[in-house]
Amino acid sequence: MSAPLVLGIETSCDETGAGLVRGHELLADAIASSVAEHARFGGVVPEVASRAHLEAMVPAVDRALAVAGVRLAQLDAIAVTAGPGLAGALQVGVCAAKAYALALGKPLYAVNHLAAHIAVDQLEHGPLPRPVVALLVSGGHSSLLLVDDVADKVLPLGATIDDAAGEAYDKVARLLGMPFPGGPPIDAAARSGDPAAIAFPRGKYRDATFDFSFSGLKTSVARWVEARQQAGLDVPVADVAASFQEAVADVLTGKALAACRAHGATHLIIGGGVAANSRLRTLAAQRCEAAGIRLRVPRPGLCTDNGAMVAALGAELAARGAPASPLDVPADSSLPVTSVLVA
Ligand code: KG4
Ligand code: ZN
After folding, report:
1. For position 123, what pLDDT does the model report?
2. Which CATH number belongs to the domain containing residue 11 in this structure?
3. Can you give the residue range of the structural domain that contains 179?
4. Does 255 share its domain with 219?
5. Is 271 a pocket residue for ligand 1 (Cβ < 6 Å)?
6. Ramachandran bin of 304, using left for φ above 0, alpha for ψ from -120 to 50, beta for the remaining angles
7. Residue nearest to atom 2 of ligand 1 (CA)
8. pTM value?
9. Which string of DSSP letters, residue by residue, matches 47-107?
């Protein structure tokens, strides 16, 4: 029997994703993003995102099927992000997935968004070793996880106590007059700046937890910029961007490596939109090499939210014969990471 063919549906934030995976093989990954509709608000507007998902959902599934050259009737299961995420946005994907599952008479897997970010790496780099530490950093979440089994046992080690890492990028970009989302323009500006120009704070860096804090850093950048402006001086945007980025990358990689050491993990996975950051990738690679830890980072298109990651986790569950979720399974905006599959 061939590996299960699974459709994965993702609508937790501003990306409508429909992915098709067979076993560990990626067949299609259709994405529609509403990011442009949120740009003028400087952040994702939940109601705007939900409406965009409604319009993009079925066309995204149809596109994925066309690219993969498969028909709905050939699917073995439907997987969908049940949480965490924006309540109304999640609801669109969960309802769509239920409708497909009911109409086709196929099992439904309502899964955790964070576990899906980890499972997607299997499509690129093969089966996950056990245990691995995962650092998930995006506009909506910043978490350090201990993954003993991505389909069954994921434990939280720490998370942000205030802003997510991507949120800090977006807010700092805004005060530097850059567009939303702020990660890419800060990354670009930082290339010509001096990362040691300004000593911004590293929140919670030296404490004993695996938690993060980025709101003090964001405030510190705002105060620094204001002080320059009040003194009638130019703001050295590249230096501010590089120094801010250095602080974020330093804390994220420092804590991730400490988590690997504390839990005897030989591999670190980084995922989420901020995993596209060039400095984070370089510093993580350097520090992992020095510590003898293998680094696995999916390509940028699989790091940001997408349907393939949900399909990847669904395929893993289907291959193990996991029990399907009931058709009245709810979307849960604050689904805990320990709940990989909502039964
Ligand atoms: O995973 P994602 O696409 O969506 C969620 O938020 O769930 O992540 C988007 C976040 C945004 O905050 C964006 O500014 C950030 O990822 N981002 C980056 C980069 N590219 C995207 N942050 C830093 N450097 C980048 N190159
Ligand atoms: Zn995400």
Report:
1. 97
2. 3.30.420.40
3. 127-298
4. yes
5. no
6. beta
7. 273
8. 0.94
9. HHHHHHHHHHHHHHHHHHHHHHT--GGG-SEEEEEEESS-HHHHHHHHHHHHHHHHHHT--
